[in-house]
Amino acid sequence: MRNHGMAMLTMLTAALLIPAMAGAADQSNTLTNAVNTSSTSSNPRSAGTIEFAPSVSFSRSAFTPVGGTTSIATTNLSASAAIGRCMTDRVELIGTLLLQHRDEAGSGRTGYGGGAGVQYNLIPQNNVTPFFSATVGAISYSGTAGSDKAFLAPMLRAGVSTSIMEGRAVNISAGYQHEINRKSTLEKSADAFDVAIGMSFFRPQGQ
Questions:
Q1: What are residue 64's phi and psi, to 5 degrees?
Q2: 44: preceding bond cis by omega (within 30 degrees)
Q3: Does Signal show up as a keyword for this record (predicted)?
Q4: Same domain as 56, residue 37
Q5: pLDDT tens digits, residue range 65-117?
Q6: Distance CA 110, CA 143 (A)
Q7: Among 33, 67, 85, 163, which is most exposed with the fewest C-beta within 10 angstroms?
């Protein structure tokens, strides 16, 4: 009689617990799927996406004249247009067209060039994606200060990209650029630190 009562109690407990556990599992799966969907939808840089990112930047830099030992401060205004292809959600290959104007003690030079490199995008948080990039490139200057060519290595940048609507983002970043001018008649080398602002336009794969 005692065994029969224990069996009935066990069956009743199971009848109550199994539906409750199944409901909890369903709620857990629903929450997980919602989190995954939200994470995916807030990341515009999925594999295969094409990103077009124009930007402008302002900086102060210093260079060492050929034959000199004292660096000279200069003001730089730059514009760039980068095109990237997302190989994964994190890794992006980028190519950049460069336009840079440099003012050096009343004389100026304008340079045209390009670069190529890689950008690493961190996991988005609340539509904000931190990123880091490293590129190398070359530029050719001309103007009242004379003509010159330079190899740009490295060009480093770190910033954040904030999604403002579907397929659009605002980018704010800080960058460093080192110029190598081995055959220059004007300067040996130059270092520039800048602050940039720009936009990103995304085209997902298949569109």
A1: -105, 115
A2: no
A3: yes
A4: no
A5: 666 667 777 888 999 999 999 999 999 999 999 999 988 766 788 999 999 99
A6: 6
A7: 67
Q: Which CATH number does the domain housing residue 78 bear?
A: 2.40.160.20
Other CB atoms closer than 10 Å to residue 26's CB: what's the count? 10
Based on the domain organization, do 36 and 58 belong to the same domain?
Answer: no
Q: Is 74 left (phi over 0), alpha (psi -120 to 50) or beta?
A: beta
Same domain, 125 and 171: yes
What domain range is 99 assigned to? 50-203
User: What total of structural domains would you count in the chain?
Assistant: 2
165 vs 102, 134, 169, 170, CA distance in Å? 35, 27, 7, 10
Q: Are residues 101 and 189 in the same domain?
A: yes
Q: Are 188 and 181 in contact (CB under 8 A)?
A: yes
Q: Please write the tens of the pLDDT for every residue from 149-168.
A: 889 999 999 999 999 999 99
